[in-house]
Every structure is written in C-alpha cells, then in structure tokens.
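ok so for the tutorial part 2 we go from a plain amino acid sequence to predicted structure tokens. step 1 is just haveing the sequence, like this:
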Amino acid sequence: MRKPKARTALLVSLVLAAGALSGITASTASAAADPVAVTVNARAGLATVPDTALGVNHAIWDQNLGTAETTDLLRDAGVQMMRYPGGSYADIYHWKDHTAPGGYVAPNTDFDTFMAAVKRAGAQPMIIANYGTGTPAEAADWVRYANVTKGYGARYWTVGNENYGNGHYGSAWEADDHPDKSASQYARLVVEYADAMKAVDPTIKVGAVLTMPGNWPDGITAGSDPGPWNQTVLSIAGPKIDFVDVHWYPGGTAAESLARTSHLPDATYLLREQIARYAGPNAGRIGISFTELNVDAGRTTQPAALFLADVYSGLLSSGVFTVQWWNVHNGIGTVSEVAGQTDYGDFGLLSSGACSEDGSVCEPPLNTPFAPYHGLTMMKLFAKTGDQFVRAGTDESLVSAHAVRRANGDLAVLLINKDPDAAHTVTIDYAGFTPSTAAPTASTLTNGATGITTSQSGSATSRTLPAYSLTTLVLRPAGATAGRPSAPGQPTASGITDRAATITWPAATPGGSPIAKYEVYRQNGAVSEQLGETAGTSFTVGNLVPGSRYTVNVLARDTAGRVSWSSPPLTFATGSPMTSACTVRFTTNNDWGNGYIGGVEITNNGTKPITGWTLTWTWPTGWQQVSSGWSANWEQVGTAVRVTPTDDNRQIAAGASVSAGFVGAYSGPNVLPTAFSLNGTVCASG
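step 2 — the prediction. this is what the tokens look like for a chain of 686 residues:
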C-alpha cells in the first residue's frame, strides 16, 4: 500500500530494472509521419469482463470515505468493487472497536459507513481481515456481523495485506505480531482463518496474499520455508483458498511505467503456473485479484490515466477478476511538472484538497478528479460487464490497443497513445468483424483535459490520436448478427507432448441453422492462425514447436455460414520430448530477485561420443539474459543463447555428462525455457 505523506510507513521500493527510456516532456502538436498499424481480431477471444472488474481502495484515514459526493463520483466512474480498510492498515485494524493502534483513524470511516457507500455506488466490497495483529476468531466475527447480523452479503475476504513485508525477507513495513514470520506460518494461519470464516458463512471467498512474479521477493527463499513465498503459501493453503491477491507498483519514470505494462501477460501466466503447480487438486478454481496499482511518476496527470487504462485492460483480458487502484484519496506528495501539467504526487483518484507542508502549493478543491479518475471513467465506457475481450495489437510500442466484443454485436476499441510529444495516426484492420460505414462513437481523454469528450465522428478504420491520449471507439457491425450459433464452451487440453495436444470443448448451441463444423485457431499476436477444423468437439493439433506457449480459441460455423463468437481462450505450453539422443537439465539456485545462479547439465544418451557440441535455447521474454558464464563459451544475441565447449569438455562420451554454469539476470517475470537443442536435436528434459 501507499499511505499519506504525513503518515508514511517504511516501504520497500520494488523498482524493476529496465533499459533507460526518454523522460517526459511537454506535448507538442506535431504528428508522427508514418501511420501506426492496429489489428483487431474478433476471432481471438480472451476473458469476459466480470461484474467486479473496476475497483478502488478506500482507507480508514480518509474522513471522506463515505460521503455522498465521494461515493457518487465513484459510481459515475463505474466502480464495481471497493476494498477496505486500507492496505497495511488492515493488519493493525480491529473492526469491532474501529481502532488501528499506531495509525490514524478518521471519523465516519467505520465498517457500516463503508458498506453504505458500497451500496450507494452499486458496488461490491472486498474486505481485508487483520492478519498482522488479529486472529481467526476476530475475522470470523467480522464475517458473522457482516453477513449474518447485517445481511450485507460481503463475498470477498483477503487474509492480510503484503504480509511478505513483515521482515522475513529483510524489509519490514507490514505489522506482524506472530513470533514466526515465515511464509509457512502465514499459510498455516490462512488455513485457520479460512476454516473459521467459512464456518460462519460457507458462501464467502477467501484470498491469500502472494507477490507479483518478477517483483521482490519473488523467487527468494528465506528461513526454513520449502521455497519462495508463493510456492510455500500455495502448497499449504491452496486447497483452502478461493483466490490470490497481488499488488504491482512498477516504479521508474512515466515512460518506464508505461513500457512495463508489457510484463503483465507473462506475470499473470507465471502466477497461474504457480497456482497450477503448487495449489493442489482443482487449482483452476482459484481466481486472481490485483488490488493495488499505481505509478511513481505522473500520479495525478496523464501518465497515470494511460497506465490505468492499459493495465486494467491487460489484466482483465487475461482473466483477473478485479483490478483496484490505490487510492481514492491519499494526500499531496512531491509536486512536479509532468507533460506540461502540475502533478501533485498524490496516489488518489480524487483531490484531498490538501497543501504541502510549507503551504506553498495546494491541491485543487476536495474531490476534484485527477487524470486517473478520467482513465477509470474511460474504462467504464470501454469494457462493460459481459463483454468479451478480443486480441488487439499495434506495430508501434508507443501505441497500445485493446478491444471488446459486446453481446449486441458491437465492437469497442481502446487506443492509447503513450507518446508525450506527438500525435499518431492509426489505421485499423479488423478480422472476424466488419464495421458499419456509420461514424463510430468516439470518446477521447487528452493531456490536461478535465473530462472525456464524446462525439459521433470519423472513420472506423483511421483515426489520429492526440499526444498522450486515450480514445475509445464503439462500432456497429455492418450486417445482422441474429441467428448465429452460441460460442463453444471453455476448451481444455490433454495429451500435451512436445509436438502435439488434443483440444476438447463443450458444444455450441445452434442458432438459425445447424452447426456444420468447429474451427480451431491459434492466437499469434493479434493474428489468428487456423490449426484445423472438425465436425466433432475434439481436435488433435500436431506440428507444434517444443517449449512454446499456445493460446487457442474454437469457433462454431453453421450451415448458413454464420460464425459464433470465439470460445474462451485456452493457454497451454509444450515441453521437451520424452526421449532423445540428449538430455538437458536446467537449474536455478540462489535467486536474489533479479538474478540467480543457473546451470546446464548435458547428457549424451547415444552409443557414440559427441565431439564438439553447441547447445541453444531461446529465452521466453526480452528481459532475460546470461550475464556471465563459466565452463563453456556463452553468447547471447537477442533472446537466443548459444553455448559451446571449452577444450576441457569438447567431447561427451556415450552415457556421460558435462556441466556449465552462468549468472542469469531478469528485469521482469522470469519465465524459464523448457526446450533445448544440442547440435540441432531437441533434447529431453532432465
């Protein structure tokens, strides 16, 4: 969490290392010369927008938490979920007497006042049970009061906040009175909390705190824990929880924060991989919530608005069930100028009306919306409950695109120009959707604007995006959409090998005509590649690449040629062959959060010696590298790694092995490679 300046707790800086990017300067009217190609692929379905998608944090130090003015502003921005009682304060807060020893509790911020605000806004609550200084019994009593005594129907409850920050890994900002501060102890107590709380109301969902892959202390093992925080917590508490809760503050300059949104697909993929690997049977039921996000630079100005829209869209499209901004009100921080606008360094969506300590600078009047508030309002216009995200992409890193398909056949496209200095003209190509020739409904938020402007204007295929802007286009389809079949159900994969997988899905419901066939597509960026088609509900895909990640969708086509919406996405990864002439064992040890000691052991499974060898693999991301190595010659070009022998280990005898080591580095989620080739032959994994 990030607290008001006057009540700041010790917080560790979780800044991801990245290449230096240019700083932010005032926007100009110039436009980039070459148009940006945007592709929107309605065949490549992603997650569906839930009714908890757009969230914010409330805090008990904010005396305006429950006011009608604040609540109505949040309702107008489309807020669907509110978190309480406020980040790290949750681990010192006692709900029965509304106290937080060691912290400040403002008047009119008790639980009932919060719930009245939730009801007025038409939202749902997420409540943080006190882990640091509380007990399972206290949490169970809170559930009883909320859902039995008062009938609030509070469904989502998290056990604690950022509890890895209790000193177990060296940095301590989170209250934790337990003598044992290990991840193992937290997990054991999560089980006790979940049992006690669900004994009162078995319909609630209980969440456990994890850390964002690629962020401290991801990958670090401390004390007697069997592994890093996420592994330990999931291994013990996984069978008892319903969701996991993570935070993300990417840090850096405005440009760096906006660039680091590219980390999110791999971070959520790794998080799901950890859940699947460690949380026990039926781990797919466990959801993901991102309940704190913000930036270090441009918090009240346009960079935060762009970041909010990009991150909310990216996370929701990957199936996260709620994304929540830190915070509603927070207080003035370090004042600066960003892109020609005064930035108050305030984590809040709305002004607190506060002044700097010396009184030299004051924020706008209380509840004046800051730029990220307008970014949240843009999300309300763009992604509505029940919409299905579809794949969108661009060929320019400073322009991002997201899209959703609506039940009435409309398509909405969100375009984000992250360039502070230049407008960008975009040309938009659509696959699986033909827009009407009518002008789309266009909503735009420009740098320094006090609100969003909306008009019926322009073209569906070309648009000029102002510098540092958000634009949403809502498009009608060119033809009728009635009578098409329903989307096929959620696909699953079985029999996954290094080269093949069998995809199975629940049948679609016919519309105006019988279903003729199902088509299976792979998402390749924003382009769909058809893998095959069948009249049945199962298809075996061959010719896959070892060690690769695939996201596929299934569409139904009827005898009249009408095509359904795409199924929900299925993501799976191929591995290495079960048997091969060689085996490679890849190891990581002593991870320190952005690097580790790596090793490769190569075994010759053949009957003849190998004289002279070249080992190759490709890193799954662009932020992984070999920093240095030993016992071999190491070379990296782009994401490709090439390892060759020294004079001492040039020959590998039949049945023998050679080993080499390296220092690995990463500045984002560390997705490890799973396929290795020796002299062009794909090896088995050791």
